[in-house]
Amino acid sequence: MRRDALDRRSFLRASALGASVALGSAARAAQPKPNFLLVICDQMNLDAMSYLGNANVRTPNLDRLARRGVTFLESHSTSPVCSPARSSLMTGRMPVETGVVHNDLPIRDGMPSLGEWLRDRAGYEAVYCGKWHIPQGYAYAGMPGFRALPTGGGQGALDDAWVSRTCEAYLRNRAARPKPPFLLVASFMQPHDICYWTIRPETLVPGEMPFPALTDELPPLPPNHKSFPDGPPQVGTGYPNFDTDLRWRYYLYCYYRMVEMLDSDVGRLLDTLEQTGLDETTLVVFTSDHGEGAGRHGNVQKWHPYDESMKVPMVCALPGRVPPGRVDPEHLVSGLDVMSTLCDYAGVEPPPDARGLSLRPLLEGRRPRWRDHLVCDWKAEGKIVRTSRYKLVTYADEPKLQLFDMQQDPWETINLAGDTRVAATIDEHRRLLREWQSRLDPAPAPDQGGRR
Amino acid sequence: MPELVTQVEDRFPLTHFERALEGFQPPTEAFDPRGAWVNTYDVWECSQGERKLGVLRVERTPRGSDLARLDVRFRKNAAGGVLHAEMSLECRTDALATPIRWQATTAVHDAQDTPIEDTRLTEGGEVGERALRVRVGGSRARTPFVPPGTFDWCLFDAVQRLPGVEMTPLEFTLLDRLNHQVKPGQRLACRAAHTIELGGRRVWREDKQVLERGAVYRPTPVREGAVTTALYAYDHTGRGTVPTVYWTDQRGRLFFVLSGLIGYVLSGEAQA
Q1: E strands of B93-168, at which residues?
Q2: How much is the pTM?
Q3: Which of B80, B120, B261 sits opposite A155 (nearest CB)?
C-alpha cells in the first residue's frame, strides 16, 4: 500500500518538478502558498548527520529529509548563542539589531516576528511549539505572532517527545477544519542536553568509564582536538574538566545519542506529513540555533568563533518545487535567510531591513547572484567575517585577530593573522565588516524595565 | 553479593540524582513482579538544579500465564500547561514484556486543566511478525520492525523479572516516547549487584581529632536514616538512547530508572 502511494507520489513530484523548472518568475509567483514546517533544534553540528558521512551517528530521518531536498554545507548561525541566534531566525535581523545580544533578552519592540509577518501579511496560521528563549523559555500563551502549543518546561530528553507529539496532534487535527496555510515551528531542545554534561561533569562524565561495554563504540576524537590557535583571549583555550581521552569520547558518545533522539522526533513529523498528505504542499526547513564544540579545539558547548560553534544544519525540502537530493557546498547561507525564504514562498515581501536572502532560487536550482561574504557575531562584541576562502575573527578593540584559510585548513588549526603576506586579506575583510556594520540599525540600550 | 557497602554519592549514576533520592525509603512489603502490582514514580529532571516535573504510574494485571496488561499514566508539568498520556498495552510475559497491541491517548491541558484545542491524539497499534501497524486519526501506517523489540514503558515491567547478574544480555529494537521510529541496536545487561545505603539524608558530622596539643574538629559526611539495600543495576544502551540504568531490589521491584538528566524514582504512593 505504501509502495503504491510512494510510486504515485514520485510520479506527481517528477511531473510538478518538471513544470516548476519550466516556470518563469511570474508563474512562480502565482504558485499556491505552501505550508511551512520550520524545525529548529539546539546545538547541533552541521555534520552530525549520517547523510553527510558521519559514522558516529545514525540519523535516518534527517537523512530522509536531506534526500528530499537541499542540504547547505556553508550554513552559518548569526551567533553561537541560543537567544541571539533565535532572534535572527525569528526576525531576519542581526542580534545587535534585535537587541538580543546574549541569552534571556527580549526582541526589540516593534520588530515583527516571523509569525506576525506571515499571519498578518500572508494569512498564515502561525503556531509555535517548544523552545522559544527570547526571552521566555518555551512557547506560551500571548507570545508575539504565534499561537502557542505549550509543552515545554524541561530539557530535551523529557520534553522533545511532547513537542513532536503535540505537533503531530496539531497537524492531524487541523485536517478537519477549513485550512489557511500554516507555519508550524517545532522547536526542539536536543541535542542541547549535552550542555549539562559539562556543567556537571563530575556526575555525568565520571573519570571511570561508566559503561565499559561501550568502550569499543566510543567515537574517536576530532583531528583538531588539541589545537589551540593563538587569538583574542575571549576565544579561550578549551574545556579543562575532561582529563582523559576516554571522558571526551564518552561525552561525544552521549552527544550523538542526543542527536539520534532528535532524529526520531523529526521522523515523527515527517511521517505525519506523509500520512496526512501534507508532505506534497509543505516546505520543511530544518536548522539549529548554533553548533556544539564536540571536542574540536578542546571545546564544549558553543560561544566560540570556530566552525563547530558557528556552522549549523540547513536542510530544505518541498516536493515538486525543490529538486531532491542535492548538497550545496558553495553558497554562504545564514539563519537570517529563513525569514526571506518563507516570505518569498508565501508571496510577500520580507519586513523592511530584513538582512537575509531568499534561498528559493538556490533551492529551485537557479544560479542567482549571491553574497560573497557573511558576518556573524560571537560573544556579543566579537565579529566573524566569512568569505569563501577565509574567516577573520575579531573581538571589540582587542588587537589580536584570527585569520584562517578555510580551504587549506578547514579544521582551523593555523592562525595566519601574524603573517605579513595576509595583511591585505585582513584589510579587505575588515572593510567588509565595516560596510556591513554601517548598514545595521543597532538596538538602543534597554531601559530599566528591559524594553527598548 | 559484594560485601562493600557504598553510598549514593559514590555510585554512578546515582550520584547525579543524589538530591532526588534524598529521603527515598525502600519499600519493605512483599512484591511479586509476575503478579498484579502498581508502581508509581516521580519524574525528576536534574540539570542545573533538581526538579520534580511529573508522575508515571504503571499498573500490571496478569492475563493468564503468558500475557499481561500494562496500564500506564504519565503526567508532566509544562510551562503554561500539563501534559497527559495514557497507554494500555497487552504484553507477553517474556524477558522484554514484548508488546502485542496498544492504545494510547495524549493531550496537553492548560493551567486550568482544560484541554488545549488540537493537542489530543489517540492511536492504536499492533506489533506484527515484521512490522508495526499503527492507526492514528484517520490514517494507517505500517512500519518495518525487526523483533525482538519492546517499548520503553514495557521495560519498567520487564526488568523486574530479570534474574540479575545471571541474565544473558538482551539485544532488541526499541520504541520509545510514544514514537513509532524504531531504534535497533539496543542492549540490556546486568552490570552488577550493589549494596547501597539508600534514603536518609547526607549531613556533615564534626569528628574530634585529638592532637598532641589540643584538638581539631574535622567535618565528615555521613548519611543519617539510611537503609542498606541490595540492588541490581541493569544497563541499557543503544541507538537514540542516552545510557540508562534500571535499579531493582532483589525481589525485582524497580526502584529507579536513571538516564542522563532524567530520573524516575519509585514514590511512596507505590502499592503492591
Answers
A1: 99-110, 121-127, 131-136, 139-144, 149-151
A2: 0.94
A3: B261
